[in-house]
Write a structure and sequence with these properties.
The protein is mostly helical and about 280 residues long. About 75% of the residues lie in helices and about 0% in strands. The protein has one domain (about 65-275): MetI-like fold (Orthogonal Bundle), CATH 1.10.3720.
């Protein structure tokens, strides 16, 4: 005889009270933020705004497909990719030495358990430098460099280099410090230099993750380089800004389509490289 009592399934979710509580708490916390940002999405569907939106979108047709214009778009697209690539290269030049200086796993004095004062102060200085670099948006850096070096891709390259140098340095340091440090510590204890410990200890086990993140950031740099063009940093973004100021919707539509294709291509290349490295 079966002694187990059959229980009927519950008629309501036993966790419903907790879900309702957290949903209410989320609304209470989010509401002041919505008020502060004056978030009113319903104005998008007002009759007057729908009419303005329709007129604006209608001005995009037909797209510009002139041979001279398309050649200009192709040239500026290439300049955009070049800006992102050179900027990322300079960002690596900034990030790699700062990462090696800030990584605790490469500190010889930290092997005893507590880092010496001078290395600790240097490490904190480097970390604050990385914070400053990545805290200033690349758009602000571009505005500064446009004033210094004038209009053109040079300002965009320098802006990407500084901001992305800070981002890469921070994430590189976190990747190196989160990995297995036994091999690196063994090398340092046996007289290896910090560079030797890095190349033979930390780099082999973290190379795939470091490279994957670098490729992802290159993809982001292509998007950023277009935005930087709106402040005079050259490339496709600057031409897009010029066409918008001239109310030439056909040119805007063509450049937006090229920009979408460019980002999609960068995404495919980035994903392929990450799969190959994974």
């Amino acid at each position: 005889m079966n002694t187990h009592t059959l229980r009927s399934p519950p008629t309501r979710d036993p966790a419903w009270l907790g879900r309702v509580f957290w949903f209410g708490a989320g609304v209470v916390l989010l509401w002041p933020l919505l008020v502060a940002t004056e978030f009113r999405p319903w104005i998008l569907v007002e009759e007057k705004n729908l009419q303005v939106t329709g007129q604006f979108l209608a001005s995009f047709l037909p797209p510009a497909v002139g041979a001279e214009f398309l050649w200009m778009v192709l040239r500026e697209s290439w300049r955009t990719v070049a800006m992102a690539t050179v900027g990322m290269t300079l960002a690596l030049v900034i990030a790699v030495p700062l990462t090696l200086a800030s990584a605790r796993t490469l500190s010889v004095s930290a092997l005893s358990g507590r880092m010496a004062r001078a290395p600790f102060a240097l490490r904190q200085l480097v970390r604050w430098t990385l914070i400053v670099l990545r805290s200033v948006p690349e758009l602000v850096w571009a505005l500064v460099f446009v004033r210094v070096v004038g209009l053109g891709p040079t300002a965009g390259v320098l802006a990407i280099a500084l901001t992305y140098g800070g981002m890469l340095g921070k994430v590189y340091g976190e990747i190196l410090e989160s990995g297995e440090a036994h091999v690196t510590e063994t090398l340092l204890r046996n007289g290896s230099t910090r560079l030797q410990a890095f190349f033979y200890g930390l780099l082999p086990q973290n190379a795939a993750e470091l490279t994957s993140y670098t490729v992802y950031r290159w993809e982001c740099a292509i998007r950023s380089s277009v935005i930087l063009g709106f402040v005079g940093a050259g490339g496709l973004g600057q031409q897009l800004d010029n066409s918008m100021k001239m109310f030439n919707g056909g040119e805007v539509l063509t450049m937006l389509a090229v920009f979408v294709a460019l980002v999609a291509l960068a995404d495919r290349v980035s994903a392929g490289l990450r799969r190959a490295l994974g």
